[in-house]
Task: structure prediction
Amino acid sequence: MEIEFTDQNFEEYASQSKPIVIDFFATWCGPCRQLAPTIEDFANRYEGKVLVGKCNVDENDGLVGRFGIRNIPAVFFLKGSEIIDKSIGAVPAAQLEEKLKAIL
Result:
């Protein structure tokens, strides 16, 4: 299941022991819409192993500032609160999945 990360709930998820994949997006962003099915697929296939979800940059200034988001889509791979890797822009699903597998 895909998670909606917000300024209000992020700490609750970050405190869990599971790795996190967070897709920073905006509804008006074409490349973000192209990436959306990949993120949804990861959320379904890795459910129980990784917390996968999205963060709307127009609604969550706190997380945008915390992670220094300047371009979208931006996919961050975290363990705890530590950024392990990230990907900026629309990239192939296989490239993102390699990064995801590296945090398992």
